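Changelog-adjacent note: as of this version, every example in the card shows the full chain rather than a window. The one below runs 117 residues end to end.
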Amino acid sequence: MDIACIPFSLHTCKAYDPSRKFPSGQIEQLRTMLSDSLSSMNSQPWHYVMAASDEGKTHIAKAIQHPVYAADGSKIHNGSHVFVFCARTTMGYRNGENRNANLPKYHLPVGAVIFNL
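Full-length structure tokens:
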């Protein structure tokens, strides 16, 4: 399967089979695509977090506890991998300002990701 074609397939999924895992080679291809994505003025104002372990998925599920996302808990736990996409809301830094000061503090394990595969 060529995962670069997936965004153009207009296919959605409402549930995930927890016994099916996304192949690690395709996950690495996806991570490379995400890391190499370009933006206006080369600012790349985003980052992502990925979770494949049950522990990582549980951390993400706890972080999104909100009525709007109530139906997503099973999707997070049952998906092969979960991706959380994050973006900066401000651009530019003053002299001496910490570049990471404007980024929100997440309580997710390092290497943990909401995009389900």
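Structural remarks: DSSP finds three helices and three strands in the chain.
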